[in-house]
Amino acid sequence: MTELINRILSGMSPTMPLTRLLITILIMVVSAAIVLAVSLLYEGFATYAERKVAGDIQARIGPNRVGPYGLLQFVADGVKLLLKEDIIPFYADRWLFIIAPYIVFTVSFAAFVPLSYSDHVSIANLNVGVLYMIAISSVVSMAILMGAWGSNNKWSLFGGMRAVAQIVSYEIPIVLSLLAAIIIPASLSMRDIIAYQSGGLGIFRWLVFNNPFTLIAFFVYFIAAIAEVNRTPFDIPEAESEIVAGYHTEYTGMRFAFFFMAEYGDMFVVSAIAATLFLGGWQIPFIGGIPMPVWLREVLQVGVFFTKVFLLIYVMMWIRWTLPRLRVDQLMELCWKYLTPIALFNLIGASVWVLLLHDRGVYDIIARVFTR
Amino acid sequence: MTNADEKFMQVNMGPQHPSTHGVLRLLVTTDGEVLSGVKPYIGYLHRALEKIAERVTYPQFSPFTDRLDYLASMNCNLAYAMTVEKLLNIEVPRRAQILRVIMAELNRISSHLIAFGSFSSDMGAFTPFLFGIREREFINDLFEIACGARLTYNYIRIGGVSKDIPGGFIEKTREFLDYFPAKIKEYNELLSYNAIFIKRLANIAVISPDDAFDYGITGPNLRASGIKWDLRREEPYLIYNELDFDIPVGKGEMGKTGDAWDRYMMRIYEMEQSAKIVRQCLDLLAPGDYTAKVSKVLKPPAGEVYVRAENPRGELGFYLISDGSTKPYRLKIRAPSFANLSIIPKLARGVMIADLVAIIGSLDIILPEIDR
Asked: B1: pLDDT confidence band, cut at 50, 70 and 90?
């Protein structure tokens, strides 16, 4: 993104500072609009996919009325939610109630920024990309509590308390397991991490296969990530059968839709982090080494990245429609008694591995033995 | 409100709540997630059925019994028909008796399927619910063949059944019986032996045999506490004494005897037994009258009679007083769910909100029967 702006600006005379500023702002707005459009489209199709996957698992058909194969169902849903009456409860804290869904949505949208979709497609190649993601996803818990408290509904408050307790707890195993992967490429930039995973047919140098500790870290991360996005079996903050709809009980229409879309946005983000850090991001498997035009490579890379992300999202949906829900204390028990210690010792193990073997993974060692 | 009360929060669970199985209102006193007391309030569905009984003739009340436990209408019809027959000393033909057993047991299966399904969705797994509905649909089709209705059948009438079964019913029922055992296996794999499910239910809300007697608990809930009491065995009616079936009792397979998991599992076991009973009845079915000769106007002699039958949810009893006219003088209905509900405040002390949902679901109460 910054490179793009610099490249365009370098062709212009440096004597027009105002024009330069305008063009910079224009490019930023356009790219933000593109990301917003893509993420909204993704969220729409994700809800469609969720319903189709659910239908498939539950021995029924799923949406098939609106558009071919029901593909336009999400448009109908969106229109319906927009046209619904926007109810703000009389005793609600209006200010908190109104602002909470926007924060939740903005945050989930902001998390798309540092992702590296291919070698050259990314909004911003932050050198602290992973840290940024972790930081920004924590803001969600604050916004959820705002909405829950602002609703002035006891069930909402229950949901909000549960959500915050859960998200804050699960941040710890998430960070610890991500660290186990990050110490190998020794970078927090998404692009650098993916670039590090090149070679080995585009598969075997994935960080998940780097050493046994990263493999464990991947599974710890994925379990914790499901909890982070509040999905079954960890969906206690919005456990329908217990606390109605949790923190968004009082929300209607488009405000509810913001919470709903943010959930799918978060699913994308946590899956994208998993794909980036553990599964080689946009590294094209098998045919990555063949020379090909740049545009084709970029398209393939974007395709590969999205395929990996969607596969992980599919696994989340699959789990959701198969498993029952944990109880709130069992959820905390899982986090503090199992995932956190495992992640911690795993991090120590990974550190020792890096200390002894530097960044050489299992594949590098095997490859060296064979080439000798 | 005193100072001591301010420590606790009072929440209304219901009458509009996803998991109170209808319009049950529970006034819940909580200290965070832990409940300190639950007070059920009932009557939202009161239709004065017992008073209506005094205003209509004996056969006219039969359709009202459909509306008692609407998931097991056949069983309610059966108990009422047996009550009036006992008062009138009517001998029911053998074919009608066998048909009654077939219908009652098929309805038991379909009722337990809903119990299984709604319980699973209370526990956060929505898929088993639709699986349960899928098999129940088959039984509904069978009932539709037999009597034309899919929910409130009014098929079992005073003296016999309303009409003989049409051709094809027996074949279709056999088809169902061949298909059903595989599905029960599927339920067990999907839900019953799921680790999360067991963790949620084992040792939760244990009903000791003494408590079960004290609170008048009947049906699968009583048997789950390890007491072998089933009216089909203890006071055989119809042709149950000729049939070979087991009475499953709770053995505490996953925890203490009489816990929520045992109560859940009783229903799975009973479905297997009911399928076995239906299979035997189909073999016993011989040509004959489907109803006894009953006069158009029923004028039973003055007197009183109490008849009880084993319903899917426990003992359904009708206490009928006749003054010799065409209308009952008084009809008292002993609804199993009412007694089963009464133990909730005792079980729900010191448990968590999620456990309260498990308690309601495992007791499998149905509100129209409680409120009448």
From this structure: very low
Instruction: Report the side by side order of strands in the sheet with B314-322.
Output: B303-311, B314-322, B328-334
CA A177 to chain centre: 15
Give this prediction's pTM: 0.85
State the nearest Cα–Cα gap between B252 and chain A, in angstroms.
21
DSSP B177-221: HHHHHHHHHHHIIIIIT-HHHHHHHTTSSPPPHHHHHHTT--THH
Separation of alpha carbons A239 and A325, rounded Å: 8
**Interface list for chain A against chain B, based on CB atoms closer than 8 Å:** 54, 57-60, 154-155, 158, 161-162, 232-233, 235-236, 239-244, 321-330
Contact B164, B86 (CB under 8 A): no
**Chain B residues contacting A via beta carbons under 8 Å:** 9, 11, 17-19, 32-33, 120-127, 130-131, 134, 190-191, 194, 196-197, 199-200, 352-355, 357
Show the tokens assigned to A107: 């945050």
Cα–Cα distance measured from residue A231 to residue B11, given in angstroms and rounded to the nearest whole number: 25
Q: Which tokens belong to B136?
A: 């129940």
Alpha-carbon gap: A271 to the closest alpha carbon of chain B (Å): 23
How far apart are the C-alpha atoms of A116 and A302, rounded to whole Å?
A: 9
Give dist(CA A347, CA B314) in Å, integer.
56
Q: Name the nearest CA neighbour of A140 among A174, A178, A188, A101.
A: A101
Q: How far apart are CA A221 and CA A214, in angstroms?
A: 10
Q: Which residues of B touch A330 (CB under 8 A)?
A: 199-200
Q: Across the interface, do A322 and B127 touch by the CB < 8 Å criterion?
A: yes
Rounded Cα distance between A283 and B73, Å, is: 62
Å between A61 CA and nearest CA of chain B? 12
Query: Are A242 and B196 a contacting pair at CB < 8 A?
Result: no
Query: Which residue does chain A place closest to B29, by CA atoms?
Result: A154
Contact B124 A239 (CB under 8 A): yes
CA distances to A32, A195, A313, B45 from A303, rounded to whole Å, are: 21, 16, 15, 56
- Region A350-361: mean pLDDT is 82
Contact B124 A232 (CB under 8 A): yes
Cβ neighbours for B251, distance < 8 A, ≥ 6 positions apart = B226, B257, B262
Q: Do A328 and B33 touch (CB under 8 A)?
A: yes
Cβ contact, residue pair A322, B354, below 8 Å: no
A232-271: pLDDT as tens digits: 777 777 766 677 777 888 888 888 888 888 888 888 888 9
Interchain contact, B353 vs A158, CB within 8 Å: yes
B125–A323 CB contact, under 8 Å: yes
Compute how many other C-beta atoms are within 10 angstroms of the C-beta atom of residue B174.
13
Which ipTM was obtained for this model?
0.81
Nearest residue on chain A to B130, judged by CA atoms? A58
**Separation in Å, CA A46 to CA A73, A267, B179:** 11, 10, 35
Closest Cα partner for A96 from A263, A309, A251, A307?
Answer: A251
CB atoms A242 and B127 under 8 Å: no
For residues B259 and B362, give the distance between their C-alpha atoms in angstroms, rounded to a whole number: 9
Task: Tell which residue, B158, B166, B160, B100, has the closest CA to residue B291.
Answer: B160
pLDDT digits (tens, 9 = 90+) for A117-169: 877 777 777 788 888 888 888 888 888 888 888 888 888 888 888 888 888 88
